[in-house]
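Let's practice the habit of predicting before peeking. Look at the sequence and jot down your guess about where helices and strands might fall. Then scroll down.
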Amino acid sequence: MKVNNWYLQAEEGDAGASSGGSVAAAADTSTTDTASIDTKAASTTTDVKQTETKTAETKQIWPDDWRKQIAGEDEKELKLIGRYATPADVWKKARALEQRMSSGELKTSLPKDAKPEEIAQWRKDNGIPETPDKYDLKLDNNIVIGEEDKPFVDEFLKNAHNSNMTPSQAKAAVQSYYEVQAKQAEARAAKDETDRVDTLDKLNAEWGNSFRPNINMVGGILSRFPADVQEAIKSARLPDGTALFNNPDVLRGFVAMALEINPAGTLVPSGTGDVAKGIEEQIKAIETTMKNNRSAYNKDEKMQANYRELIAARQKIQERKAA
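Done guessing? Here is the structure:
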């Protein structure tokens, strides 16, 4: 039993020793593996840093002074290039210009001292007609070039062609001219109406009851001229652009002229026969009222004013005959 116990104890001890050795061995192995992992991690970190370094080196293709190298010593060019962040932006700009040129958006300029055949070809390439009369002048807004304007327009087209204006440019210029003319005509018509009303209001307040007779006398003076002269006078304008008959002084002058011709013009209009006889008849009628009904005459201020005008007109006629 003792032997067996000893044996058993020996086995247990051996087993414990063996077990302890295994644990130690396992511990040693774990330590080795951790070290190996640390080594690999360190290696990976190194590889990442090397990769980042290589990437940075790859990105840095152009030197920092690439703008200076392109511009050279030209400071103005250097400022222009300074607008671009990278050389790639410069290429994008150049490519865009190239595409615009190939599409025809950007036209080549006519060479200096170009020969006639070169000019003809350049005009053909740029859509300019061969001769001035081939410009398209179909204007918008139903605008039609009048016969009186054709010489002016033809002269303009000659200059436009000599200046190599495109059809759209020539058409726009002529269109603009007529649109401006139309606006000016509208503005002038509006001003003419305002001036006309102002003039009539002023003379109506000044002439009172004689307003209508005086206006009729102006028409009587005009009727003495041939029809074409009448139209010329009616459409005439003063230096400041005011229509002739929208000036109060002009109308006053016509009335004065009419009264020189017929002193009783406001009393006995022209075309009614013997003016002097008509004046005498009116004077006689008023004097009869004065004789038979003096109080009626004294109360009628209009009749009194008319009587004074008739007497003055008779005197002027007598003076004219005496002269």
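How did you do? Residues 116-183 form one domain.
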